[in-house]
Amino acid sequence: MTLLSILLSWFPSIIISLAIGSFISICFHPNFLNISCLIFILYGIPLIIYRIHNLFYPLEAGVTYLLDKKYSPWWGSHQIQTIYIAFPFLETLLRLIPGLFSIWLRLWGAKIGKNIYWTPKLEIADRGLIEIGDNVIFGYGIRLYSHVIKPKNNNLMLYVKKIKIGNNVFIGAGCRFGPGVNIKDETFIPVTTDLYPNKNANIN
User: Fold this and answer.
1) Running DSSP on this structure, what letter comes out for residue 2?
2) Is the dihedral of CA 68, 48, 51, 78 positive or negative?
3) What percent of the chain is modeled with pLDDT above 90?
4) Three-state DSSP class for 169?
5) What is the DSSP string of 53-117?
6) What is the pLDDT of residues 35-57, one digit of tens each?
7) Which of 66, 110, 138, 175 has its CA 20 to 30 A from that of 123?
8) What domains can be seen in the chain, in order of their start residue?
């Protein structure tokens, strides 16, 4: 791993430490400034660091190897987003306010259409690597993974590709999508469907 990879692996711990310190400050001095500081730590800092990181190390589709000496942009971006996977309630709160979660994803670089229904329990591993059309309904417990890792030749092969979901799509509860999945317009995906990398789906 490169030095930058090691440094960014500490990013979630830094955010948690800052959030704990801010929360303690709120307990002793509950005011608007301290509350705003906590919100900025949890939502603002990761987003800003991600945008800066993506400016210098943009995510690219394809195959790379994590144990190579070359820096992996995906690794850094994943570490920045890990806090939302470890503490999903942070994004669950956003999904309770209509339209807010879609705005949040757009800030991360995702392409999100209109009239999206997000259920409270949803996992997105790579926020900047999804494209979603209009009038899409997500069922309970859906997981979107725009990357996959597997051991190969004494290394870890990483495959990254955007997940694309068309217009007027209904996705049943418990579905899991891998990188490169492409769901056509007017598609109904049954519950607990697993779509593997680069699968084109048109299930009605």
Assistant:
1) -
2) positive
3) 91
4) coil
5) HHHHS----EEEETTSSS--HHHHHHHHHHHHHHSTHHHHHHHTSTTHHHHHHHHTT-EE-SS-B
6) 999 999 999 999 999 999 999 99
7) 66
8) 3-201 (2.160.10)
